[in-house]
Known about the structure:
Blueprint: H1 2-32, H2 42-52, E1 59-63, E2 70-72, E3 77-81, H3 82-86, H4 90-107, H5 111-140, H6 143-180, H7 189-228
Amino acid sequence: MIIVVSYTITMLALIITLSAQGFVSASYSKFKGVKSNKRIKGQEAARIILDNNNLENINIVEVVGTLTDHYDPENKEIRLSSDIYNGTSIASVAVAAHECGHAIQDKEEYAFLHLRSSIIPLVNFASYAGYFAILLGCFFGSLGLIWLGIFAEVIILLFQLITLPVEINASRRAIKEIKNNNLLDDKEIPSGKTMLTAAALTYVASILSTILEILRLILIFGRRDDEND
């Protein structure tokens, strides 16, 4: 019975993850192909937003990859993938504005952003050590190591829960900046919102998948713990 439940949970987590990724990919592909009426490039939109928020010190750089866009708070850089950096689509403006939202969060010392940044080293360690501890626990028959691995998964879940409001807040700031700086026409803004909402759903999917994975591990190894009592 436990095996069936574990398999069902794994499949459900996979479906959630693939559905969210499919939605954001489809939304990005759709709006990447829709040129904005103002033909403003992503890097131009970012520069306008940053300068109007007294963030002239933030550099904007082009990076390789697709949807590899991010804000680096340590180096004070907004890194935009080539399609976003050079593109004049609705997606380009929306994604560039979203990353500027993170820069504004940093300037205003947004609590969740700084909390997330502070626990990144711990999360990186937990990501590598968690399943390693579970594998060692299974190999040596140590439930203590297994539960340590499950605790590492809980740390990752905590990071994801902190990340979600950071991303939602950045998207809200992005839409506000797009409106204030007249970067998209009024009729184009709903499309920008859709693009950003699709991206936010990937974080929701990650949270649900991690919760399901923790539940699966507890079902498997919690039963063994009971058997040993």
